[in-house]
Amino acid sequence: xxxxxxxRRFYAEEIRAVAGLRSEALVQAFTTVxxxxxxxxxxxxILSLNQALGEAxxxxxxxxNPEHVYHNVAVAIDAxxxxxxxxxxxxxxxxxxxxxxxxxxxxxxxAGTGYYSAVLAEMVGPDGxxxxxxxxxxxxxxxxxxxxxxxxxxxxxxxxSELDGSFAGILVNAGAxxxxxxxxxxxxxxxRLVLPLTxxxxxxxxxxxxxxxxxxxxxxxxxxLISPISIFNCEGARDExxxxxxxxxxRQGGWKRIRSLRRDSHREGDGCLVHTAPFCLSxxxxx
Length: 287
Description:
Number of domains: 1
Helix content: 25-40%
Number of strands: 14
Structural class: alpha/beta
Largest sheet: 10 strands, mixed
Order of helices and strands: HHEEEEHEHEHEEHEEEHEEE
Shape: globular
CATH topology: Rossmann fold
Radius of gyration: 19 Å
Distance between the termini: 46 Å
């Protein structure tokens, strides 16, 4: 086993331990995909966060040895914009909850330069299909080049306002106040939509909230909380009125009560946590 292979294996096991991963396919994908191939040439800028002060700084790696990026750290794609290939343990729980299997069809919204898209692509394999969507044209072009060796991946430049087909899993890698109706409509039976449900909070540089797993069921959608997250906004998936309701819910600790999402027409009642015309986050559990 080469030195770099050992580093990748240790890196994957570190993510498994920190994030509590259950999917062996996901751990294997982290072992297989070469992270450095999606970061541009080294040396690289590693993100350092001062949690107490809420400040972000970057430190350069000593050289361009790929071993430096096989740690549970965020690596800059564009440090001036604080745009990073995110910390694996922050995103891995959401990917684990998506629980993709070989041969399934999936979507990754917010593909960046394609690294986490490649990880998902390894999970579904050549018999599956992955659509990787990125709103930034330069990043989409980089992702297209980086993923060219995986013909079962299609890279799309856009804001995911339309999805063509039916999918077993959709991962949104940007903060939303609500799931777009197009995403919910594109879920296959028992399909999973995993997204960061976030609100803009005073004093917090990025919208913050929780990854949630929304599963398609008959008539309503069971919701499972996954993990806290702070992340960039998702274009086209934010509403100021809903943002205000989420802020109030989060301040009251009400995220712990979220059990389902309703799309049917109904009056606001005791079970409604965030009630709007298109959808309602509810405290009523579903099977």
